[in-house]
């Protein structure tokens, strides 16, 4: 009897799929990595106080941090579908080509730009990068704690919505559940394989939209496998009853 019960439990355990929508802040990890590296470099170099006119390392680390942070925030604030991303590449290439042509036509332009850029020397000390890294780590901890109170689970023949501090539960029938996948931001997909899943339960008039599902391609394949097995089980049960 025990072996039979163990065999019965294994499919239900493997067929449990968790769908966790994350906030946009989850994509800020490149900024956290750069802030942590900068904090370590600055601490080992003893840059507790900095002078941007004479010290190069603080200027380089601060510039790198600002570049990554601005790019990271740009990715989060705006959505870049495939067509928009391709347009952005062409725009940046056109701007680069235009700057190159201007330097050929006006040879004195490049030294002027170089002198202007060389005068911009932002610099932050060790304390700044340590505080920034610690603050972002605390925010990531808060994110991972908060998503434990709002997530979806596909288990056996039902879709479950766990939400609330006391783990309130709402159930939807899983048979005939239709799942659509959308990649609405190519850069977020490149960072964490994130995308959107749209669930269509048969008992609901409105679709359930789950944004920022990490590694959405793997989740879609797991959902397809589980929903396919549910259909097979239902079909076998109905044939056996006849």
Give the tags:
242 residues, alpha+beta, four-stranded antiparallel sheet, three-stranded antiparallel sheet, 8 helices, 7 strands, 16% strand, flat, disordered N terminus, disordered C terminus
In short:
This protein is α+β, with helices and mostly antiparallel strands and 242 residues long.
Task: Write structural notes for this entry.
This protein has 242 residues and is an alpha+beta fold. Helix content is 57%, strand content 16%. It has eight helices and seven strands; from the N terminus they run αβαααααββββαββα. Strands 1-2-3-4 form a four-stranded antiparallel beta sheet. The protein has a three-stranded antiparallel beta sheet with strand order 5-6-7, with helices on one face. The chain starts with a helix and ends with a helix. The model is unreliable at 1-13 and 232-242 (pLDDT under 50).
Helix content: 55-70%
- Order of neighbouring strands in the sheet with most strands: 1-2-3-4
Element-level helix/strand string: HEHHHHHEEEEHEEH
In terms of DSSP E residues, the strand content is 15-25%
Report the average pLDDT across residues. 81
- DSSP strand count: 7
Rg calculated over all Cα atoms: 26 Å
Structural class: alpha+beta
User: Would you identify the regions where 5 or more consecutive residues have pLDDT less than 50?
Assistant: 1-13, 232-242
Separate helix tally: 8
**Describe the biggest sheet?**
4 strands, antiparallel
What is the 3D form?
flat
Separation of the first and last Cα atoms: 27 Å
């Amino acid at each position: 009897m025990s072996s039979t019960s163990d065999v019965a439990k294994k499919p239900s355990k493997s067929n449990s799929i968790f769908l966790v929508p994350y906030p946009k802040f989850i994509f800020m990890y490149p900024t956290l990595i750069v802030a942590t590296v900068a904090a370590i470099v600055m601490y080992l170099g003893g840059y507790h106080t900095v002078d941007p006119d004479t010290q190069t390392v603080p200027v380089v680390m601060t510039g790198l941090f600002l570049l990554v942070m601005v790019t990271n925030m740009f990715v989060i604030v705006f959505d870049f579908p495939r067509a928009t991303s391709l347009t952005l590449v062409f725009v940046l290439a056109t701007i680069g080509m235009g700057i190159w042509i201007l330097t050929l036509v006006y040879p004195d332009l490049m030294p002027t730009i170089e002198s202007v850029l060389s005068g911009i020397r932002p610099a932050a000390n060790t304390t700044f990068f340590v505080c920034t890294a610690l603050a972002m780590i605390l925010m990531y901890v808060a994110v991972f704690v908060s998503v434990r109170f709002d997530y979806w689970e596909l288990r056996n023949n039902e879709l479950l919505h766990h939400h609330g501090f006391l783990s309130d539960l709402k159930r939807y029938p899983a048979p005939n559940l239709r799942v659509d996948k959308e990649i609405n931001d190519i850069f977020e997909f490149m960072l964490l394989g994130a995308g959107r899943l749209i669930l269509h339960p048969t008992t609901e008039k409105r679709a359930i939209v789950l944004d920022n599902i990490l590694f959405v391609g793997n989740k879609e394949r797991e959902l397809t496998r589980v929903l396919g097995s549910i259909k097979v089980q239902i079909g076998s049960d109905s044939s056996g009853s006849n």
